[in-house]
Amino acid sequence: MAKQIYNYELFTNKKDELAKIRKKAARNRRIKILLLALILAGTAIVAYILFNSKCNYYTYKDKVDTEDSGDVSYENFDEGYLKYSSNGIEYQKQFGRAEWNIALSYEHPFLAKSDSYAVLGDKGENTLILLNKNGKVREFTLNYPLLQATVSEQGIIQMILEGSDSNYVQVYGKNGKLIADMRSSIEEKGYPITAAISPNGTQLAVSYYSINGNTSKTSIAFYDLSRQLQSDSIPLKGGFDYTNTIIPKVSFMDDNTVAAFGSKVTYFYNIEDSPNEKKKLEFDQQIQSVFENEDYVGYIINNSANPEKGKYILQVYNKKGARKLNHIVDMNYDSISMWGKEIIAVRGNECTIFNIKGNILFQGELEGDSIETIVPAKGWRTYHVVFRDKIVKMQLQFWKNGK
Q1: 240 C-beta neighbours (distance < 10 Å), count
Q2: How far apart are the first and last CA of the chain?
Q3: What 3-state DSSP class applies to 401?
Q4: Cα separation, 289 vs 263, whole angstroms
Q5: Beta strand 335-339 with 342-347: parallel, antiparallel or unpaired?
Q6: Looking at residue 276, what DSSP letter applies?
Q7: What is the C-alpha separation between 204 and 192, in angstroms, rounded?
Q8: How far is Cα of residue 114 from the mean position of the Cα atoms in its chain?
């Protein structure tokens, strides 16, 4: 049998060549990884600068002339906006272009909404309308004057009515069927002064106010709408009492998280099973105003104790009660709202736009006849601005005329 002869020199050369190839490939991989990391880091830095830096200029486009009176209000709704006033309400998919409108004559119109339904009521009167994006769903004629109402994403309506010697908390389905009718007076558990229904329509929160001699009390009660005992009552899940405190506003942050707002305090509750108070926020100064969305609660707090540092303190908390922003604000304002992670404050023709980190994205006076509202639009730092005389799409810019 012939012996097999190997060329060791050729074998060694190929081995060395393969090692060089592998070393070069590894070096190229490291270079690519480093370049990718630098690109990602650079992108993050640019994005941070873009989203946190202040714009000093703006341009208008898509202008629509209007002749609105001073009592016109706008709210984002479904795929568009609701425009309402004492004369009626209309739905616009695009600002200035009505899909439908309903003529009304309301003295004191107020709107409450969920993602899919809205209610328009006349405070102190006996009428309320349930709406969706297609128009009127149902109109209610009430037995007593209307004080307040909220609506769930299924069109279930909670309302508070003012009787002669008692107030009533009533709940209706979108078909007009009465689900619950609870009467209460100051001598009993107290007057229901505010209430809210959960987004899924299964839970109800009510704030009752009562007086006993020289002592007053607020009771926050939670009800289970998914289990109706009889035609005029619903099961009580639990509640909390607070002495010498008024809670004029309760709000569902989600189906199981409720916030109750007082003049210097806010309580956060988890009511998924047995209600429990999971967080209490106390403030040294008076709360001037509260604004909220599905993720955050914001406060403008009077800073009269330290006015030399600024007129107000702007604070934002998440729905767990954890503070995300504490910022001094030295400005007056007529209205303030929160959209996503942006806060928009308006006074006359002036507006200030903050982000959740407290950075001012824009501050200045806009050209137009008194700002009614500012709503974010599609696009980077783009907004719909509603004036009394026109509606414009505003694009913020770092440089004048885009240069």
Answers
A1: 16
A2: 86
A3: helix
A4: 9
A5: antiparallel
A6: E
A7: 12
A8: 11
DSSP state of 230: B
Tokens of 169: 């908390």
Place of tokens 């240069």: 403
Stretch (H or E) spanning 284: none
Residue 3: which H helix or E strand, with range? Answer: none
Q: At which residue do the structure tokens 């885009």 appear?
A: 402
Q: Is 358 helix (H, G, I), strand (E, B) or coil?
A: coil
Cα separation of 218 and 216, whole Å?
7
Nearest to residue 187, comparing CAs of 161, 221, 232, 217? 217
CA distances (Å), 176 to each of 167, 172, 182, in order?
Answer: 20, 6, 17
Count other C-beta atoms under 10 Å from residue 41's C-beta. 10
Residue 310, phi-psi category: left (phi > 0), alpha (psi -120 to 50), beta (remainder): left
Confidence of residue 403 (pLDDT cuts 50, 70, 90): very low
Question: Under a CB-based contact definition with an 8 Å cutoff, are residues 173 and 179 in contact?
Answer: yes
Contact 101, 89 (CB under 8 A): yes
Q: Would the pLDDT of 232 be above 70?
A: no
DSSP 8-class letter at 170? E
Those residues with Cβ within 8 angstroms of residue 136's Cβ, 6 or more apart along the chain or in another chain: 102, 129, 130
Token pair for residue 211?
């007086």
Those residues whose C-beta lies under 8 Å from the C-beta of residue 212, and which sit 6 or more positions away, are none
- Spatial separation of the C-alpha atoms in residues 86 and 137, rounded to whole Å: 20
pLDDT per residue over 354-363, tens digit each? 898 888 999 9
Total residue length of the chain = 403
Separation CA 190–CA 207 (nearest Å): 9
Q: Quickly count helices (H) and strands (E) in the chain.
A: 1, 32
Tokens of 288: 């001037």
Phi first, then psi, for residue 97 (nearest 5°) are: -125, 100
Band of residue 222 on the pLDDT scale cut at 50, 70, 90: very high
Q: What is the pTM of this model?
A: 0.82
Sign of the CA dihedral with 78 first, then 80, 82, and 88 last:
negative
In the block, tokens 């909390």 appear at: 240
* Structure token digits, residue 162: 């003012």
Q: CA-to-CA distance for 72 and 83, rounded, in angstroms?
A: 7
Q: Which amino acid is at 104?
A: L
Q: Is residue 133 exposed (0-12), middle (13-18) or buried (19+ Cβ within 10 Å)?
A: middle
